[in-house]
Amino acid sequence: MTVQIVEIAGQKMAMLPIDDYQKLLDIVEDRADALAAVAAEQRRLTGEEYLPAEMVDRIMGGESALRVWRKYRGMTLEQVGKRTGIGKSYLSEIETGNRQGKPALWRALAEALDVSIDDILPLE
């Protein structure tokens, strides 16, 4: 690696070929990726749940996160409705975005599905 030190406006700066610069960026990115992987593994070992990519893709594609989680948990509208004290038709309307539901209901839904509220709130 060739580096040239220059002084501009009283500040020393290092100049290097673009290929060397790109190699340094790649090394930094690889290191950041490795650290992120270690942190993710530590979270997994402490019980954090990982989601299948297909599920994330469905949510990111606009499908209701509430519906995706409910189906991922293998629960019917009726089962979630019983756990939260609401009817399955009302729950269906919340899943489709036709009804909003109050914050207390979203907390109950999150508890019924064993997720955080942020996991099931609509993306907007």
Provide the fold topology:
Layout: E1 4-8, E2 11-15, H1 18-45, H2 53-60, H3 65-72, H4 77-84, H5 88-96, H6 103-113, H7 117-120
Helix pairs in contact: 4-5
Going by CATH, the architecture of the largest domain would be Orthogonal Bundle
Q: Which CATH top level class of the largest domain fits?
A: Mainly Alpha
* CATH topology descriptor of the largest domain: 434 Repressor (Amino-terminal Domain)
Bin the helical content. Answer: 55-70%
H/I helix tally: 7
What string gives the helices and strands in order? EEHHHHHHH
- Distance from first to last alpha carbon: 47 Å
β-sheet strand percentage: 5-15%
Quote the average pLDDT. Answer: 93
Q: Pairing-aware structural class of the strands and helices? A: mainly alpha
Give the CATH superfamily of the largest domain.
Answer: lambda repressor-like DNA-binding domains
* Number of distinct beta strands: 2
Order of strands in the sheet with most strands: 1-2
Broad shape: elongated
| Largest beta-sheet details | 2 strands, antiparallel
Uncertain segments are none
Please give the radius of gyration in angstroms.
24 Å
Total count of domains: 2
How would you sum up this structure, described in words?
This protein is mainly alpha-helical and about 120 residues long. The protein has a two-stranded antiparallel sheet. The longest helix is centred in the first third of the chain and has 28 residues, at about 20-45. The protein has two domains: about 5-45, no CATH class; about 55-120, lambda repressor-like DNA-binding domains (434 Repressor (Amino-terminal Domain)). It is built from seven helices and two strands.
